[in-house]
Write a structure and sequence with these properties.
CATH class of the largest domain: Mainly Alpha
Structural class: mainly alpha
Mean pLDDT: 74
Shape: rod-shaped
Helix content: 55-70%
Radius of gyration: 40 Å
Strand content: 5-15%
Strand order of the largest sheet: 3-4-5
Low-confidence stretches: 185-193, 209-214
Length: 338
């Protein structure tokens, strides 16, 4: 049967001191490896919880920064879609101008050339519809629906966010700031020639008003209106009184009106990009500032910790030597008593 090991008071004190030295040496080693001096409240209650709070804030701001970045990309996609629609509209305007040029030049093939201009013109408008519908970012489309909106949280406070409602180019609204360039399913919006009429994703152009009121040569006192069935109509209008140029001017006027609305929409979304970019910059810089403050609070002085570790190793050796001497003295006393 193994008897109990009896330790003297001095030996117990020596063992306790040795354990404390080893604990402090392990903590110093960990600080040197991680370059952090705070790993638990025992390392400094006040500083530890301040560092924890700063870390939580940095985590929230990092998440907000990613959300802001995604919002910026969504708005950039929207602006890119509007820019493409404007490019296609300018191309359609060029086809209308080309049709008038072909009429003026005449020739045996003028009918075929006007037919080609018509097909290219309508294809351009149909591509406008497709581009607008394809302008999506993670299923968010801000130029085909006023029901959709972009929501971006930019602060620690969950209630602080940027709301960017959609501005549909497919709407019967004719207000310059918010109106569309197409009406839906043939519904006319306000006065004639305010918008292009769209039915089943196909373009229907009707009731084009010239930029000025032209008298109708066949109906004195009435305002001349144009209905688009193709650029072949230019031949008929030319025969009826030289109104071919007025017909193309009416189309170009509509396109210019649509371009003006699209530019307003583009500026609206671009201004929100600027807001988010400013918030992203602030959030990133502020997070870096908080991170620097947290680092100053938690970082270690490598030289100081290295000296501390060296001292602890020395104390550890002395403690072991002391315990060894105490053990030898204890053995000597036992031999004397025997």
């Amino acid at each position: 049967m193994v008897g109990k090991v009896q330790l003297s008071f001095d030996q117990r004190q020596g063992l306790y001191a040795l354990q404390q030295i080893e604990r402090l040496a392990a903590r110093t080693d960990k600080r040197l490896v991680t370059r952090q001096r705070l790993h638990s409240p025992a390392d400094g209650v006040s500083d530890y919880f301040i560092a924890e709070q700063l870390g939580e804030t940095i985590g929230i701001l990092t998440a907000r920064q990613r959300e802001i970045e995604q919002g910026i990309e969504a708005l950039k996609a929207t602006v890119g879609g509007l820019d493409s629609v404007q490019r296609l509209l300018r191309l359609a305007k060029a086809y209308a101008s080309s049709a008038l040029t072909n009429l003026r030049e005449g020739g045996d093939s003028v009918g075929d050339e006007l037919s080609q201009n018509t097909n290219a013109f309508l294809d351009t408008f149909n591509n406008i519809v497709l581009v607008a519908q394809d302008t999506q970012y993670l299923e968010l489309n801000l130029i085909t629906s006023t029901e959709q909106r972009l929501l971006v949280r930019y602060s620690e406070d969950r209630e602080q966010l940027l709301r960017v409602p959609g501005r549909s180019i497919f709407t019967t609204t004719t207000a310059f700031e918010t109106g569309g360039i197409f009406s839906i399913n043939g519904v006319r919006a306000g006065a004639a020639a305010e918008v292009f009429s769209l039915t089943n994703n196909r373009l229907v152009l009707s009731n084009f008003l010239p930029p000025q009121d032209y008298p109708d040569p066949l109906n004195p006192g009435a305002t001349l209106e144009f209905s688009f069935v193709g650029f072949s109509s230019l031949l008929q209008f030319e025969q009826l009184g030289g109104q071919a140029e007025s017909f193309t001017q009416a189309i170009e006027a509509n396109i210019e009106r649509a371009l003006g609305r699209l530019e307003v929409h583009e500026q609206y979304f671009a201004s929100n990009i600027n807001i988010l970019q400013t918030r992203e910059h602030f959030t990133r810089v502020f997070s870096e500032t908080l991170g620097a403050g947290r680092l100053e609070l938690t970082k270690v002085d490598a030289n100081e910790e290295a000296v501390t570790l060296s001292v602890l190793h020395t104390r550890n050796g002395l403690a072991i030597s002391s315990l060894s001497l105490l053990g030898e003295r204890h053995d000597q006393l036992l031999r004397l008593l025997q």
